[in-house]
Write a structure and sequence with these properties.
Number of helices: 8
Radius of gyration: 16 Å
Oligomer: single chain
Helix content: 55-70%
Structural class: mainly alpha
Strand content: under 5%
Number of strands: 0
Length: 143
């Protein structure tokens, strides 16, 4: 399992955005990252200034969203969808996208469930519960 450091994750996003803006060739993963970055114009200035934002902390208790965590979750969801893991996540995502009429909004709905699953696993010192994750997605599909 790949387990990059915080700085490596940030460097990846900074480099992908820089390469995109310089019209350089992107790896497949960088291309996916840039597609997610493009949907988040609020992060463009941050990604254009690595020297300013490499070490910055975003504090959820202050109502801040960490752009690197947010983009990383988009990448995780894209990977889950590409291999349908956990099994059934892709069908639920497609149902959400159809119901919402917006694939990006559907990714954010999935992200809410993914974040909850990770939070519970950390809180309870247990492995992530894929069934609870899928059940959360089922509720999103119904609401």
């Amino acid at each position: 399992m790949f387990n990059p450091t915080r700085d490596q994750v940030r460097d990846f996003f900074f480099a992908a955005w820089q390469k995109f803006n310089a019209r350089q060739a992107l790896s497949d993963l960088e291309q996916i990252a840039v597609e997610h970055i493009a949907r988040h114009p609020e992060y463009h200035a941050i990604l254009a200034q690595p020297e300013r934002y490499q070490q910055r902390e975003w504090l959820p208790e202050m109502g801040e969203t960490n752009p690197f965590l947010h983009l990383s979750m988009h990448l995780s969801i894209s990977e889950q969808l590409s291999i349908d893991q956990p099994v059934g996540v892709k069908a639920r995502y497609l149902a959400l996208a159809a119901r919402l009429g917006d694939e990006h909004a559907a990714q954010h709905a999935v992200m809410d469930c993914l974040a909850e699953m990770i939070w519970r696993a950390q809180r309870d010192h247990q492995p992530p519960d894929a069934l609870a994750y899928l059940e959360c997605l089922d509720q999103k599909c119904l609401s």
